[in-house]
Amino acid sequence: MFWLPRVGWAVLLFLIQLSLGGILTIGGAKPDLLLPFVVYQGLRYGAVAGTISGALCGLALDMMGSGPIGVTMLALTIVGFTVGKVWQEGPFRLHWPWATMLLAGGLFEQIIVFYFHSRDIGLPFGELFFRYGIASAFYTTVLGIIWFLSPLYKSK
Amino acid sequence: MVRVLSRRRIFGIDWLVFGIAVGISLLFLLFGRAPALQIARQEGRDIASFFLQPFRFIPEMFTLWHDNQVLREHTMRFAAENSRLREAALENERLRGMIDFRKVAPWSLLSAEVIGHPGPGIGGGVILNVGARQGVTRNAAVISPRGLIGKVVRIAPHTCLVQTIRGKSFGVSLTIERTRVQGILKWLEADVWILDGVPTGADVNVGDLAITTGQGDVFPAGIRAAVVSELPEEPREQFKDVRVQPLANLQTIEEVFVLILEEETAVVETDEEGEE
């Protein structure tokens, strides 16, 4: 039952994302509150935890969204796996893993999501990504850093 | 920024899990439009909607806050508009009163507006927007529909200065309308006027109306001026100072009438602040 608190956190963040997503949106930049959770799982528990949490969180978001199913799942799966793999087995150590991983993961997620969304709705990928994707990634990173500074975060 | 570590190559369960997850997501991407998946998506939304019920109050609070802001703005705007309308209604009422007064007044009246209140150093004076060009003469009486205001003491082509009854060197001969007892209206201090020279045994009661006597050449007889507000408890030997209150509110006058005298001989050049 060690995973139960993690599921609880994930569900809580998921519900907050769904209920407050519209309020937190600033100028089209919408944060992904589940991305910090996935990165945290990858950093703290490794690639497997990161992969599973990324896949489930991504699938949940896809099911609630209006875009193609599987896009966010694919993005967060890759992010969770990569974070865990790089942090545990990578050839280098990052000095600010939390912020760096969040920003890199956020940008990657936005690239994947907006690539498939742009194909789905017929708008140019570059315009969507540079207008909303980068801002959303930075927004998510800022919120993640706030979480890092909060007592809820436990560094590895 | 980075510190290079020894390389390790491990292929294990993590790659397997990753492969399965990526495979599933790709399958979703390939068959995401399938009706079964859309039905599942709808069901998932319904379930999430059920669990989101307790969280709904948060965005609703923001909505209420925003609505509250909008309503506050509307309230402020409507309050200002209401104030303007109320002001217009009061002005309308005053103007209607003036029109009615003009109909019953026996004198030739010139409408005027108060455009200035000189400082307290020169006494209770007001400046009107009419002057010699409009026919205003020196010592012309100034009245309002409610009662006596004062007299013109200085004239310019388009303005004039009115010395109101709120001045120590200004006296008006009045008579009690009910008993014809006479006295001189004098201002003592803020909001205190007396009817000086009323005999001790004279029949004067609180509430009696005092009107101008017409003595002198400034104020015609019969102008409502003041009402008796208080009688002295210990009258002097021969006279008693009866306290009166002017009918016109000198603090808030805005529109007045200047009495235009038809006969030039009726105008007497007296001292500007002398008694009538």
Task: Characterize this entry briefly.
The complex is a heterodimer of chains A (156) and B (276). With 156 residues, chain A is an all-alpha fold.
**Percentage of helical residues of chain A?**
over 70%
Name the strands of the widest sheet of chain B in spatial order: 2-3-6-5-4-13
The DSSP helix count of chain B reads 3
Report strand % of chain A: under 5%
Q: How would you state the average pLDDT of chain A, rounded?
A: 84
Derived structural class of chain B: alpha+beta
Report low-confidence residues of chain A grouped into runs of 5 or more: none
Measured between the Cα atoms of the first and last residue of chain A, the distance is 21 Å
> Spans of chain B with pLDDT under 50 lasting ≥5 residues?
1-7, 264-276
Note the overall shape of chain B: rod-shaped
Shape annotation of chain A: globular
Largest sheet of chain A: none
Order of helices and strands of chain A: HHHHEHH
Binned, the helix content of chain B reads: 25-40%
For the largest interface, the chains and their residue counts are:
A-B, 40 and 36 residues
Number of DSSP helices of chain A? Answer: 6
Written as H for each helix and E for each strand, in order along the chain, the element string of chain B is EHHHEEEEEEEEEEEE
Mean pLDDT of chain B: 78
Strand content of chain B: 25-35%
Oligomer: heterodimer
Counted beta strands of chain A: 1
